[in-house]
């Protein structure tokens, strides 16, 4: 009785296996990049928070110098933005051939996240929660500071852009991350410029599939 011949994989099955192997490797690298970005940006965010707390105390005592506050805050926010932008650039460099969208399509409907996916989702959740907390704190603090609101408001918006793009870029490969992005979009509202960013990242259709309308602009 002869041995059974090994089952030959079809070309499609071979490609799928290769895609899954590549996806797993990329997800591990993504998790490392996100964690490193968080480690670098955290001290800057802590300094921003501390500067805001100090300014609010001075404001209560009518001792606030808005010019000095703005001068201290600007480089901190700009440096935090640089770290986030660098993190985004490293993530984008993992996908030079725009393969993520194809690899993601098989996983959009998956309800159970793999260990690799969970690692990426957890990292992105920690990063987005930490960055967004500082942005929210800053925006709230400058409401009663006309000069600071005028000069720092746009910088806080600038800081949020790479965060949203990081979640979008990672979300191409790990659909669970899109939930984090959708939560932030629900909180801040979706403007036309941001819609273009999402369409540029090719995740507008994935978000639409999850029930979040990217084509609709909130007023």
Automatic annotation (TrEMBL):
Pfam short name (any one): DUF6987
Keyword field contains Iron: no
Keywords, comma-separated and alphabetical: Membrane, Transmembrane, Transmembrane helix
Compositionally biased spans, kind Basic and acidic residues: 12-23
Chain ranges passing through the membrane: 163-182
Boundaries of every DUF6987 domain copy: 15-212
Disordered, as annotated region: 1-23
Biased composition (Acidic residues): 1-11
Protein name from the UniProt record: DUF6987 domain-containing protein
Species per Swiss-Prot/TrEMBL record: Arthrobotrys flagrans
Taxon lineage: Eukaryota, Fungi, Dikarya, Ascomycota, Pezizomycotina
């Amino acid at each position: 009785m002869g041995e059974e011949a090994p089952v030959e994989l079809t070309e499609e099955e071979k490609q799928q296996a290769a895609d899954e192997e590549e996806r797993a490797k990329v997800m591990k690298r993504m998790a490392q990049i996100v964690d490193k970005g968080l480690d670098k940006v955290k001290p800057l965010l802590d300094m921003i928070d501390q500067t805001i707390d100090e300014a609010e105390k001075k404001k209560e005592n009518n001792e606030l110098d808005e010019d000095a506050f703005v001068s201290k805050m600007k480089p901190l926010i700009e440096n935090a933005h640089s770290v986030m932008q660098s993190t985004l650039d490293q993530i984008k460099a993992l996908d030079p051939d725009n393969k993520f969208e194809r690899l993601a399509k098989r996983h959009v409907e998956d309800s159970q996240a793999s260990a690799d996916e969970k690692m990426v989702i957890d990292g992105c959740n920690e990063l987005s929660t930490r960055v967004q907390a500082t942005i929210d704190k800053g925006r709230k603090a400058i409401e009663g500071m006309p000069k600071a609101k005028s000069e720092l408001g746009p910088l806080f918006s600038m800081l949020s852009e790479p965060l949203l793009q990081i979640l979008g870029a990672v979300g191409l490969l790990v659909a669970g991350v899109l939930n984090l992005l959708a939560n932030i979009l629900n909180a801040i509202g979706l403007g036309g410029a941001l819609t273009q960013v999402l369409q540029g990242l090719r995740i507008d259709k994935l978000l639409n599939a999850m029930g979040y309308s990217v084509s609709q602009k909130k007023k």
